[in-house]
What we know:
Layout: H1 3-15, H2 19-27, H3 40-57, H4 59-62, H5 71-76, H6 84-87, H7 93-99, H8 113-126, E1 151-157, H9 158-161, E2 162-163, H10 165-171, E3 184-186, E4 192-198, E5 203-211, E6 215-224, E7 230-234, E8 238-239, H11 241-245, E9 251-261, E10 264-275, E11 280-286, E12 292-294, H12 308-320, H13 333-349, E13 353-354, E14 369-373, H14 377-383, E15 385-386, H15 388-401, E16 406-411, E17 414-420, E18 428-431, H16 460-485, E19 492-495, H17 496-501
Parallel strand pairs: 2-10, 3-7, 13-15
Antiparallel strand pairs: 1-4, 4-7, 5-6, 5-9, 6-8, 9-10, 11-12, 11-14, 16-17, 16-19, 17-18
Helix pairs in contact: 1-16, 3-8, 12-13
Amino acid sequence: MSTGNRAAAATALVVIPVKPTMKNILRTASFWLLLLVATLANAQANHSFGEALYTSKCTVCHARDGSGETRIGQTIGTKSFGSPEVRENVSNWRDIIAKGKGKMPSYGRSLSDQQVSSLLLYIRSISQPTDKQQYAPLTDQPNTLAGNSQASWQPTFEFDNELYPSFVLSMGGRAFKTPDRARFFGDPLGMAAVQIRSLVPNALAHVEIQIEGLAQLSMLDVVLPEAGQQYRIAPLLQYDYSRLAKIDQSIPATVTYRVHVNDVDLGQRTVPIRVRSVNDVPYMAIGPGGKPLDLSFLFAAYVNESHPLVQDILQKALNWRAVNGFDGYQSDPEGVRLQVFALWNTLQRDQVHYSNITTPSALSPSRHVQSQAVRFIDQSFSSQQANCVDGSVLFASLLYKIGIQPVLVLKPGHMFVGYYLDAGHKNVEFLETTMLGTSKQPGRYNLRFSPILHPVQSSESWRQFVQATQYATQVFDQEVAPAIQQHRSQYRVIDIAKARQAGVNSIPR
Length: 509
């Protein structure tokens, strides 16, 4: 297969494991944390709309904070929304808005049902009880009033009750476009959520979720339009990202959930979870119908072109003078290849060598999620060893930094790196990073390259580099490309630039 055909195949197939995988994840309505996806913007819009209605129609008597402490409010005796006498009639608030009560006018003809729901949602968000005894003590079971539960609910936590910091850190901070599903509210990628079924229409639901030591109390208020319908509510969790980034071994944690419906406290429940090491990447999970769902795009999160170590390695490479500078695709394909070699040679001089120790992390409790431990680039460099995945993400980090677009190539039990030789992505080449350190290596005190005394192309390091590119390119041509064209599982090409565009961030170090 020519380099042009390889590039065409890789370009076409790169889109499959990254974008379509993301699309499948976001559209799969019955799987894990990506169930019933919808926009957080819907809930936020309801809140903003309700606030606008409240400001224009209610603040003159009720005040902006719902306290009733305005001149008119005090004159007519307006009570705080948080007072016991007002809150005990919470189930009648909708009728009071529509029909009026006492000195309050009716709005049934001027506001639609949706406007009333939005207004109720906002009023509830600013109404805090002045009498704390109005709330029942915390229990592990939902409370009932007069034998009639306002709703039934249950907590959920995805990935088999395991929290992967790598997933949170790599996918967080981005607003994903998701299909509009009326039965989902909150974070489309939320790990923790509640499934709730209200027994009354237009119920006001308030959900609180907190993860011990990792996510502070996070809340979401929504209106559940239909009675008897099940909804999924996932507040946007306020993680301690710096703490997640430092977790280097598995630890236990507890997730606490609490739900109110129409101001009735339905109680608190807790779910024990296991928090995995930040080095663990979930690369495959069992989806609907027992079919595997590819999550291998998450390997791109370990490509970190912004790590300070990257700049140090680039400076060392310039000192060895295989190239005079890194200019990406301003050079011709041969110049691009020479830049890649300069990185290879520097890693050799720093004694980075292949380690065949691959650490498959523990399977999830149900064995539905498979993960693998991946070293960060500073860990590989400091230990001077890297397995196939470690070496590939290290090399891809260096390439991405100098403007040469890398790809990660996965096959069963193995990974290697590739890179485009031109800005138009017409030619692609591959490199077997496990061949680092397998033969006699140039020491850090060897001569610098020079056209006369020590030319690049006559060096042992160059010979080994060429062998590594020829080997990897042959594997791609003869095994990987045909397998991907046949849609065989476990064969993937992950374009790092496309992964970034799809929302996969590098994990901070």
